[in-house]
Amino acid sequence: MVGLIYFGSSRLDYFDRALGGYAALLLITCFITSYRLALWSFRPPTRFFFRTLVRLLQTSGLKSLRTILGDAGNNFVAQKMIRQRSWFRWVMHICLSGGCTLAFAVVIPLVMGWVHFETSEGSDQIYHLYVFNLAAGSFGIHSFQAFMFFNALNVSAFVVLIGLAMAVFRRFTDKGEKAVQTFYMDWLPLILIAFVTVTGLMLTVSYRFYEGRGHSLIGTAHFITVVALLLYIPYGKLFHMFQRTVALAVKISRAAGDAEAKACCIRCHQPFANRLQLEGLKSILPELGFNYISHSGVLNYQDICPPCRRKIVPISQGACLGR
Prior knowledge:
Number of domains: 2
Oligomer: single chain
Strand order of the largest sheet: 1-2-3
Mean pLDDT: 89
Number of strands: 5
């Protein structure tokens, strides 16, 4: 990230020192999130799925890659799995995730110095856009494109506020949510996002309608709320944005296992499970301290189908009673 800042801003020529605090905060958040993501990725279950994903990409790369991109589009972008549960929840998630993603997509390149604007020689009515110091187009300052460029954060803020209002309404009215929600995991992220959004809009209101009065105080408050939000990400509910990546690996491994012959029960010899996932389960459980291997070391309880497991219980009880 430091290298991207240095070279992306043309050796700091276009790095805004006034935003240095935000850049340092992003670096700290990037490090903490990467560290926690690495720890989580090396746990036995997640490590198995990620290793399986890498192996499948090596053996059937293009096919697996198409599946990953398709699933990412459906579940990460379109959030199809939420739409199947509830249209209200889907609109709420689209507003929150879409608005926050747009805000980050605008803020991060500007903070890092990857994007800057210049006016034309002899005319202050034309702006030129540069990305990584490469020309990426130009536009008039009164054009619709300019309006969207300079108000993208305000647009994202209003979209996020719609999602927040829907989320708060659901937290108060949904009985299922009320039964399991906690302040730290459910209310705190909404509060932090709300503070960041509102203070960001107040900055616009300050310089647009009040000639910049209170801008410094609002800017400080906005920075503090951004610090709180970014440092919450690795330790709270918002970390699931990164944990969702394992869902892609699970789907790929499941599809690969379904394409093969199923594992058969060693008692009734009937197929009952995805062979790839069963082998993963047999390798993961001993690492977690669960031993389902027989004393002889030959049989594994995971190789027995659920119906046969239920039958084994009364058979064993009968054997103990001499029947």
